[in-house]
Amino acid sequence: MTATPSAPPTRPAQVQAPRSIRNAIQELCFSGYWFLVVLSISMLGATSVTHELRLIHEGEFATGVILNRHEKSCGESRCYSVEYQFAPLIKGQVSPTLHRSQADVGRVTYASSHRGSEVWVRYLPSAPEINRLDEHQLPISILAAIILAALLLWIVSLRYLIYSLRSEEHTSELQSHSDLV
User: Fold this and answer.
1) CA distance 57 to 39
2) What is the DSSP letter of 89?
3) Which of 161, 164, 150, 145 is CA-nearest to residue 34?
């Protein structure tokens, strides 16, 4: 009795998405990535900008004292920070409350400040934990420019996605029209 060879098992056909759909998915992922970048920058930046604007409009000054100085390696350069405390007298309180904070500073500020040095601190009377060294103002314009650039990059990538989908749709319409002729 001879065995008849059986047909090889059939594999399910793999369905591949058309190139335009794959490109669209890639572009959508790319634009989604930029959306997340913009969102995270804006969330971080919005808090900093909000605090800075409140400090500018509602902030008051207090004298603070440098407690410690910290220096560390940041790649090929050095990073500096100071730890300070201040004790503002807030309305309704009988005695001042000590508040400690830390700030990254430049080399010049670091070199000129020593333990016990007095510094000006700008703080919010309603929330003294929101404070900064007075000479250490956040460059709001730079932060706003970064957020705007990231947002524009995201918008451009979305427009490119839409343009590429439309041009591929137009190309396939022309192809089907030429097939009919």
Assistant:
1) 26
2) -
3) 150
Q: Which residue has the tokens 């207090």?
A: 62
Q: What pLDDT score does 138 carry?
A: 47
Note the pTM of the prediction, 2 decimals. Answer: 0.51
Residue 15 dihedral angles phi and psi, to the nearest 5° = -95, 120
Could you give the C-alpha distances from 81 to 67, 69, 102, 125, in angstroms and in order?
11, 6, 7, 24
Q: Which residues pair with 99 in a beta bridge?
A: 86
Residues 6+ apart with CB under 8 A from 78: 71, 72, 107
- Specify whether the CB–CB gap between 164 and 27 falls below 8 A: yes
In this predicted structure, the answer to whether residue 105 has a pLDDT above a threshold of 80 is yes
CB 141 within 8 A of CB 52: no
Q: Can you tell me the distance from the alpha carbon of 32 to that of 30, in angstroms, rounded to the nearest whole number? A: 5
Give the residue among 60, 45, 135, 70 at the shortest CA–CA distance from 90. 60
The closest alpha carbon to 128, from 78, 90, 77, belongs to 90
Q: Which of 129, 133, 132, 113 is nearest to 71 (CA)?
A: 113
Cα separation, 72 vs 94, in Å, equals 40
Instruction: Spell out the residues 6+ positions from residue 86 whose beta carbon is closer than 8 angstroms to its own.
Output: 62, 63, 64, 65, 98, 99, 101, 121, 123, 128, 131
